[in-house]
Design goal:
Layout lengths: L2 H13 L3 H20 L8 H21 L5 H17 L6 H11 L1 H6 L2 H12 L5 H12 L1
Helix pairs in contact: 1-2, 2-3, 2-4, 3-4, 7-8
Length: 145
């Protein structure tokens, strides 16, 4: 995802007077710019950086939804709406089958060692930003049984 795509989507939301959508996209843009500045990439923001920040924001909003009390319906609905908007821009993550296939192809020797910490460290570096970490952990745990 390119930063320009997010900015165009925000402008469209502003023109449509969709305040919630505009605010959701704006918060992602601000987070991307902050991370870019922190990493010293003020002018040349890569799509990988944008994707990383989008996934982080998505995870953060998901946690807000999960921890929000059920009696705070209005707040929970606002979080869900934000989650839906951000998920539109999130990169497509790999499925469990795809992850399993790649692990079997590339890391079969490492799996044979049976050392979960080494396996996780190596595999997570390969799948960073491409697959969900919890899913990878579950797949590796199943393979080691």
């Amino acid at each position: 995802m390119e930063l320009e795509t997010l900015q165009k989507a925000m402008i469209e939301a502003m023109k449509a007077k969709d305040k919630e959508r505009k605010e959701s996209i704006s918060s992602v843009i601000q987070a991307v710019k902050k991370v870019a500045i922190d990493e010293g990439h003020r002018d040349d923001i890569s799509s990988e950086l944008v994707d990383k920040v989008i996934l982080k924001e998505l995870k953060s909003v998901k946690e807000q939804i999960d921890t929000c009390p059920d009696d705070r319906v209005e707040l929970k609905n606002a979080y869900k709406a934000r989650y839906e908007v951000i998920s539109e821009f999130a990169p497509k993550l790999m499925s469990a089958e795809e992850v399993k296939k790649i692990i079997n192809e590339k890391f079969s020797e490492l799996i044979a060692s049976g050392e979960k910490s080494k396996i996780m460290k190596t595999v997570m570096a390969e799948f960073k930003g491409k697959a969900d970490g919890k899913m990878i952990n579950q797949i590796i745990s199943e393979m080691l049984k």
